[in-house]
Specification:
Structural class: alpha/beta
Shape: globular
Family: Belongs to the glycosyl hydrolase 2 family.
Keywords: Glycosidase, Hydrolase, Signal
GO biological process, one term: glucuronoside catabolic process
CATH class of the largest domain: Alpha Beta
Largest sheet: 8 strands, parallel, barrel
CATH topology of the largest domain: TIM Barrel
Distance between the termini: 57 Å
GO molecular function, one term: beta-glucuronidase activity
CATH architecture of the largest domain: Alpha-Beta Barrel
Number of domains: 3
Enzyme class: hydrolase
Number of strands: 33
CATH superfamily of the largest domain: Glycosidases
Bound molecules: (2S,3S,4S,5R)-3,4,5-trihydroxy-6-oxo-oxane-2-carboxylic acid
Length: about 625
């Protein structure tokens, strides 16, 4: 009875599933090291605004004239000149480059938001007794996947990978892969239909056909925990997954062996004192090899500790200040397609690391590409990672919570070998309410259950309050109890009535025993718009806003990091000022094409001094 009474009534969090239920059926975490067939390239597409291809009304849409996923050579059918006819032909559709968002590819698709069908034909070698999978790195937002006319799976969530087994459907020779992509967001999607970034519908990251042995390594992870020991987990799948010897080799420095249990799982706990630690200054990565049952997976992994002590963040046991910036997933250029090649990510990270003198990046507001996160490991940038539990969410709905937890699990399983990732965030700017706090609390518990080695944070809202006659900025949010690192977004001097002159004197009252990050602050400026007095949207205003906000930040004693909003101007359909914005959020320190604004220099000087004072 007590348990029943204590259960918060009407709270989605009360029915949160356990971490293990959230593990996807297949992960193929070592996918990048396997032989695979990259299905990038030219695909055909067909718009389907009324979703006819999915919701065929029997008898009405006679003989499925509109079902794009059928394994059908329409031209050959037409040549036979029967009474049948079709109102699609995926073989003769227009072409589009995959990966990439349709919004950037075709002018008439700029603001298309709905269902689009994509098709790619490919040849595959004959089956060899092993297994075959399709691994999608990201499809935004829902995917309906068909191979050779058969549905092989669905996925919801625009930024996380999913793996579908095709062993029994794949043909030796010609294959027809059809993917329905629905970009529509609603009140129960994550994020919902209101955000401050572009729609970017499509197959936005690579798709690969991967073959494995009949019993194979599905998951292989290794990470350093706070006490310096290296813990790991390997999971096999297949008939012979139980009782196998698994070997892990970390470069030439350490090897360890363990046996899989009945479920195919082996765990490692390795003392490796000779390992060189990974850090932004010295991003050392080891070649790691996992072997079991004749299968091998390789990865490049760095080892470091991350912890909080009092109000300090400790990297490898030493206090660190996070000199960061926020980033959306968009390449430089006037018409980004959200196609993050290594080159595109490298260009952005070079601006952060060698331009701004940064050591940290907030990858907002969703998991960025695997390419990007791997590059952070290689170049030495600490990472804040988040899923788009952003602004409004249907907090009371258990199905929505389940989606959020699953998305978070997919992210953590994907990235837990990345030393760069130190912070998992459970939300951004969500208005405080009991249901919302329970939802985020369940997310924080989920993170700790899957990955107890990293820190938990969330980007919170601040409030202004009068205390003893003083105007103070405070965090009034019960979620702070669930977080290792407090983070707040603050826009005084941009939104609201504060003048820039007033900013340095604003008083902050925040918990003394916890590190604090300013996860966002920023102001719009149109690159090249200058010398018009201290007006909003000028480069001078943005630069002065940065000077004054940094002066304010310096007076917060527990401040341990910054990720101002944002490195680069980014597309946002809600920003429609016809002179300054035209569909772009202009808070970038550089323009969309990479032209540095005056404020870029202000933040660079600040970080250069910070780097000196903590060296
Ligand atoms: C915020 C949001 C971010 C917006 C930004 C803005 O607080 O977290 O997604 O783009 O403000 O520019 O207003």
């Amino acid at each position: 009875l007590l348990a029943v009474l204590l259960c918060p009534i009407g709270s989605a969090a009360a029915s949160a599933p356990a971490a293990d239920d959230l593990r996807p059926r297949f992960l193929l975490t070592g996918a990048q090291s396997r032989d695979s067939q990259d299905l990038s390239g030219q695909w055909t597409y067909s718009k389907d605004l009324y979703r006819t291809g999915l919701t065929d009304i029997n008898g009405w849409v006679a003989k499925s004239r509109m079902q794009r996923y059928r394994d059908l050579d329409v031209a050959a059918e037409e040549a036979r000149a029967t009474t049948d006819f079709y109102e699609f032909d995926m073989d003769r559709g227009p072409l589009v480059a995959i990966p990439g968002a349709w919004n950037a590819a075709v002018p008439e698709m700029r603001y298309y938001d709905g269902l689009v069908w994509f098709q790619r034909r490919f040849k595959a070698p004959a089956p060899d007794g092993g297994r075959a999978f399709l691994r999608f790195e990201a499809v935004n937002y829902k995917a309906y996947v068909y191979l050779n006319g058969k549905e092989i799976g669905r996925h919801e969530g625009g930024f996380t990978p999913f793996v579908l087994e095709v062993t029994d459907v794949l043909r030796g020779g010609d294959n027809r892969l059809t993917v329905g992509v629905d970009s529509t967001h609603d009140a129960q999607s994550i994020p919902t239909f209101i955000t401050d970034w572009d729609l970017y519908g499509g197959i936005t990251r690579p798709v690969r056909l991967i073959r494995t042995p009949a019993t194979f390594i599905d998951d292989a992870m290794l990470t350093m925990q706070a006490d310096g020991r290296i813990v790991g987990e390997v999971r096999l799948q297949g008939d012979k997954a139980a009782g196998q010897a698994v070997t892990v080799a970390i470069g030439a420095v350490a090897t360890a062996t363990a046996k899989t249990d009945a479920g195919g799982r082996a765990v490692f706990d390795i003392a490796a004192p000779r390992l060189e630690r990974w850090s932004p200054d010295s991003p050392k990565l080891y070649d790691v090899r996992f072997t079991a049952a004749g299968d091998t997976v390789r990865d490049r992994i760095g080892f470091r500790t991350i912890a909080v002590k009092g109000n300090q963040i400790l990297l490898n046991g030493k206090p660190i200040f996070l000199r960061g910036i926020s980033l959306h997933e968009e390449e430089f250029g006037p018409n980004p397609a959200r196609n993050m090649t290594e080159q595109a990510s490298r260009a952005l990270f070079t601006e952060i690391k060698h331009g701004l003198q940064g050591n940290y990046v907030r990858l907002s507001h969703y998991p960025h590409s695997e390419t990007t996160v791997r590059l952070a490991d290689e170049m030495g940038l600490l990472v804040w990672s988040e899923i788009p539990v952003y602004w409004t969410v249907d907090w009371e709905n258990p199905a929505v919570l389940r989606k959020a937890l699953a998305m978070q699990a997919e992210t953590i399983y994907r990235d837990r070998n990345r030393a760069a990732v130190v912070l998992w965030s459970v939300g951004n700017e969500t208005p405080v309410s009991p249901a919302r706090t329970a939802f985020h609390g369940a997310m924080a518990d989920n993170v700790r259950a899957i990955d107890p080695t990293r820190l938990v944070s969330a980007a919170l809202l601040v409030e202004r309050s009068k205390e003893n006659g003083e105007d103070v900025t405070v965090i009034k949010d019960p979620l702070v109890d669930k977080l290792d690192v407090l983070a707040v977004n603050t826009y005084a001097g941009w939104y609201g009535n504060d003048t820039l002159d007033a900013l340095p004197a604003l008083k902050w009252r925040v918990p003394a025993d916890r590190p604090l990050i300013l996860s966002e602050f920023g102001a719009d400026a149109l690159a090249g718009y200058r010398n018009d007095g201290m007006k909003k949207f000028t480069e001078e205003y943005q630069a002065q806003y940065y000077r004054q906000t940094l002066a304010m930040a310096d007076r917060i004693p527990t401040l341990r990091g910054l990720s101002p909003w944002i490195l680069k101007d980014f597309r946002s359909p809600r920003r429609e000022h016809p002179v300054f914005q035209n569909g772009w959020n202009r808070k970038g320190l550089v323009s969309e094409t990479g032209v540095r604004k005056e404020a870029f220099g202000v933040l660079t000087d600040y970080y250069r001094n910070r780097a000196k004072s903590t060296a």
